[in-house]
Amino acid sequence: GETKTNPSSLGALASHGNMSGGVPPSGNGAGQNAEAAGMAPGANLGSTMMMANPMIGGAMMAGHLLSHRNQTITEVWAIPGPKSDTVIRNAQPVFEVRYENVSGVNADDYEPVLLKLEPTTNNFRLVGATEAKPDDLQASSAGWQLYSSFVEERIPGQAKKSAAGSYQLQPNSPLAKGEYAIALRPVKKDKKFSPTTLSQNTGDGFAFNSVWSFEVQ
């Protein structure tokens, strides 16, 4: 039968198995650019408080995963590897998230969110996905409202703002065992992104593409 290609859920995409167009290898610059962008790696402040740096370990834009007959493309954001290097054994952690000095980014345009990552059979963890038309992805595009219909598994939580680009983030309820990430998301869902910044990990594209992943055990 015909495969349903609409990105209705990350689980459906992860189990589809038709990952065409290859995901770029790790080390595409997002992680390496973290300190240059004004985001030094955070330090562990104890069992319940951790510095979470969303710019460590960039989430990379996957290739064209699936396509519709009408030339609508499903773009998928994923990070390589089945497991995070960072392991947390506290089910209700509190994170300090700071991103006030990222070049080309208005910190007030974003807020940190907690996401559940969806593992795939080919050793990636899906962060999110959305549909795009080829025109959206052209370098000449005036702006792509990529987050207006973005699919991701957001974990309910509280983000307390102390200053522009400085938040304390914590889940509302204990986290089940699994893979998670902190990411920056636009406060306004209709924010327009330049395809060039997304492909080159600069400015707003750097902010949206980057995640800080961890495993809860």
Structure characterization notes:
The chain has 217 residues and is mainly beta. It has one domain. It has 3 helices and 13 strands, in the order αββββββββββββααβ. Strands 4-13-12-6-9 form a 5-stranded mixed sheet. It has a 4-stranded mixed sheet with strand order 1-5-11-10, with no helix packed on it. Strands 2-3-8-7 form a 4-stranded antiparallel sheet, with helices on one face. Strand 7 and strand 8 form a beta hairpin. The N and C termini lie far apart (39 Å). The relative contact order is 0.23. The N terminus is likely disordered.
Number of strands: 13
Question: Largest beta sheet: what is the strand line-up?
Answer: 4-13-12-6-9
Number of self-contained structural domains: 1
Mean pLDDT: 74
Structural class: mainly beta
Tally of contiguous helical segments: 3
- Residues in helix, %: under 10%
Q: Specify Rg, calculated over alpha carbons.
A: 17 Å
* N-to-C order of helices and strands: HEEEEEEEEEEEEHHE
Shape: globular
Q: Termini distance? A: 39 Å
